[in-house]
Each structure stands twice: as structure tokens, then as C-alpha cells.
Amino acid sequence: MVKVNVKFSVMFKDATGTTGITVDTAGETVKDLIDALIKQFGLQFSERILDAKTGGVRRFINIFVNGKDIRNLQGVDTKLEEGAEVRLIPAVAGGNEFLGFTQDQIVRYSRQIILKEVGGAGQKKLMRSSILVVGAGGLGSPASLYLAAAGVGKIGIIDSDRVDLSNLQRQLLHTNDDIDRPKIESAKEKLLKINPEIEVIAYKERLTADNALNIVGGWDFVLDGSDNFPTKFLLNDACVLKNVPFSHGGVLRFVGMTTTILPGKGPCYRCLAPEAPPLGMIPTCQEAGVLGAVSGVIGTIQATEILKYLLGAGDLLVGRILFFDALEMRFEEFELKRDPKCQVCGDQPIIKDPSQVDYGHVCEVRF
């Protein structure tokens, strides 16, 4: 019996749960070590390292013993000495793929692939997913940057505004050089610079009662980064009607709040506020101001919720409102229950189409 130290490439992490272990082998060769590793880690590891047709080690798996490739020694019959250092590394250079990932993708996403909640399968989910970001502003900026960096395959952005100097204090998608450019152009450019492998779809228009259902439908998740009540109510109604999950977020001065809405599985935004407050009662960010970093906190939480949803990991903010007070540096959580009388998600909903609603100041249903 020989005791050796084994180090794994990050691409074995989801199969082994570790990047390094000490193993007692029953024999003295590399083959004996592989048998011991398969016995310890099971079928998933076996499928990673062995060719199903030949039963031998996959040709793109490199095995090094004390820094030497076993191909230049005696192959799997290479003798192992007590305390030997063995490394298992997939050969992915030169554009070759390993389990569907290119070398660049393995490196780019390595810090999250090693998380057991992500792994290779989770990363592929992200790369196949689609997210619509409504608003390329204070919330949409940090959220979309993190979603792009995480490898979400398709990101849509809808915004009809142009970049203004006053935006730059909190809207990190844009720079001084972008002033007076359409926000969606600036946003698309930055996201592709962060991750050129993703697809970015730009909608240079406002979300309206006429286009909301068509734009929202078909996305895996929607992020509410809007800055006005009419758009928030319209987005809520459209997502509930199209059964598309979404993240609500809002910021003002030194505070922010967010909740995650899964239609049919919890309350919606109208359960929190059946209609918008009267005009002038709640000041806008333009009127009352907002600390830019607060937008970053809430937008980043929204992105985190979306990634968790796509991965099926952890507990979401469904039926919970997360409130952030930056002055006191405190988070508080409040319960949000579904309202059986809710006009759009209740037991007998009366909103069947956004055209029924006057998305003016109070977002009331019109009969």
C-alpha cells in the first residue's frame, strides 16, 4: 500500500468536491490509484476520467507523477513511490473542449464552477439562460454587469433614454464618453467588453401596455430596474400574465428594497401595493436624490437572486421584502403575503391584459 498526494484540476471539482486529497492505494501503480479514486468518488468521476469505449484513461486527461507525464514513463503502469505528487489535468489548450467548455470558459468561470451549487452543469444552465433587464440605470447597471460576467447566455435591455452627465454617479454601464448616446448602445458595448461570448439584445423603446406582453414573454427571468411606478406596475402585470419570474427593486436617498416574484408561487407587486401612491406623495430620485452605492447594493442583490433562481440554489426572496438602510447599515426583512383579492394574481383576477389598466399616476384598472 502506497500513500500519495493527488491534486485535481478545477474541472474535477464537482465530481470530487475537492481539489486535493491524500490517497492510500491498494497497489503501487497509477492504475491502482485510479481504481482507488473511482471507488472513493463514484460514477461521475469515473465518467470524467475513463473512456467508455476503451475503458482506458481519456486521451485528453493528463496525469503527472512528480511533474512528469506518465505518457513519457510507463503509462498507467507507472510505479508510485510513498508521498508521490500526482496531478490530473484535462488538456484543453488549442481550442479543444472539455465537457463542452473551451479553455477560456474554464478559466473565465473557474471561481464559480468550483462551487458545488454551480459546477459544470450549473454553468451550462447559466450559459443557456436568458434575462431581460428593464432599465439600464442605477439598478440595471450593476445587475447586468454581474449577469454578463457570470455567463448568462442572453441578456436583453430595454431603455429609451440617453446617457446624461447626472447618470454617471450611479449608472456604471456608462462613462463620460457615452454622454448623449442611447443607453442601450452604451450598455450593450460594456456588457460585450465584459463577456464577448454572450448575446445582448437591445430594445430602444419604452415598455408600454401595447408592447409589454410581447417583450416580456419568452425570457427566463426579468429584472425590474425601472425608476417610476407606472413601469413597475406594468412590468408586474405583464410578468404575472406571461408567468415570467422577476425581481423588483427600488431605491431612494439612502434606502433600497427588493423582492423576488414567482407568478403562481407567491405574492406579486400589487399584493404589496394595489395601486401607486398619488402623484407627488413619494418623491423621485431626481427630486430627493439617491446615494449611488445604494443602487449598487440593491442591483447586486437582484443579480444574485436571478443567478440563484437559474441554478436552483438557496432560498429566494419570495414572500419576503428585503429592506436596506445605508445610514444605519442595516438590513431588515418583512413578510409579504399573497392577497386573495389581488387584481392580477388573486383568486378572481380582473386584469387579463395591460390594455385594461390606466398606467398613469395610480395604475388603476379601467372598466
Could you characterize what this model shows?
A hairpin with a 2-residue loop joins strand 10 (about 245-250) and strand 11. The chain is built from 13 helices and 15 strands. It has two domains: about 1-100, Beta-grasp domain (Ubiquitin-like (UB roll)); about 130-365, Rossmann fold (3-Layer(aba) Sandwich), CATH 3.40.50.720. The longest helix has 20 residues, at about 290-310. With about 375 residues, it is of the alpha/beta class. The strands form three sheets. The protein has an eight-stranded mixed β-sheet with strand order 8-7-6-9-10-11-12-13, sandwiched between helices.
Quick summary:
The protein is an alpha/beta fold.
Total of domains: 2
CATH topology of the largest domain: Rossmann fold
Report the portion of residues in β strands: 15-25%
Instruction: Please give the CATH architecture of the largest domain.
Output: 3-Layer(aba) Sandwich
What share of residues is helical?
A: 25-40%
In whole angstroms, the N-to-C terminal distance is 82 Å
